[in-house]
Amino acid sequence: MKLPPLTAFHYFNIAAETESFVRAAERLHVTHGAVSRQVRQLEEHLGIELFERRNRAIFLTPAGRALHGTTQAIFEQLEGAVQRLQQQDRDNVLVLSCEPTIAMRWLIPRLPRFHAAHPDLQLHLVAAGGPVDFARSGVDLALRRDDFHWPPALHSLKICDEWIGPVNRDGATTLDGQRLLHSSTRPSAWRSWLHLSNRQARHSQRSDYEHFYLSLQAASAGLGLAIASALMVRDEIDSGQLQAPFGFLRDGSAYHLLSPQPLDEGGKRQRFAEWVIGESQACLAHLSLLQNDEAALPSPPQVR
């Protein structure tokens, strides 16, 4: 026996739920006539009346009620299966918003290890800094330095402290007379480090760059001394492309993962959080930077 088209059963099911061709048409975003035709064709195919039509009202016949019990269960099962498949697909995708400099200079070179450790997760990387609108952007996690106040409703997890220090190509150990490279995105970086290190830079020259990563690139090119994040220059220090003649100091800031959802309930967010904490700790340990950070527990939403 050849079954009628699925569309006919779908239109019948909605009409049976609403007990109205007009309301069914509104839910299906079609015309009243389209619903009526589909139901009539189904009745003709089955050779059974499914609705009793009285003036402008419709009522299920005993056969219609019996069929509706079946179609309702089938479409509920179908809808549930589709939702599970879509949810499974979303569960395998992690959308991460990350500050551009740390994304380019630290995170991306380490992503092959993440994919090797979590081959079932697809990481979608969005380069952005500052506040993030999770609801509108579709982002699952944001990796940020705590140089701004985030909404109290967000969950946060400290990844590691920020360590900063001057870097250059030739390893010169004097600040006097040097060209100091500044950036608009971290305008107080030099002032903070000079204060923390109790040093002065006499008779220095100045060059300004719009972005932090541009000042680091300029330092790699031998154009002067730039204040760097230890994380972001670890690879260049290893290769000898950059030197850190004064070492690194904590500047009082830190990197955090932000999320609208809890970070300690298993799943993709916790898996990435554990991985990125391990990578950052290994990086700082490699640079012989003491880590006094205790294992940070995810913090609930709170006022910062």
Automatic annotation (TrEMBL):
GO terms for molecular function: DNA-binding transcription factor activity; sequence-specific DNA binding. This is LysR family transcriptional regulator. The keyword Transcription applies. The keyword Transcription applies. Residues 4-61 form the HTH lysR-type domain. The lineage of its organism: Bacteria, Pseudomonadati, Pseudomonadota, Gammaproteobacteria, Pseudomonadales. Keywords: DNA-binding, Transcription, Transcription regulation. One of its GO terms (biological process) is DNA-templated transcription. InterPro entries: LysR-type_TF_proteobact-type, LysR_HTH_N, LysR_subst-bd, WH-like_DNA-bd_sf, WH_DNA-bd_sf. It comes from Pseudomonas putida (Arthrobacter siderocapsulatus). It comes from the Bacteria. Belongs to the LysR transcriptional regulatory family. Pfam families: HTH_1, LysR_substrate.
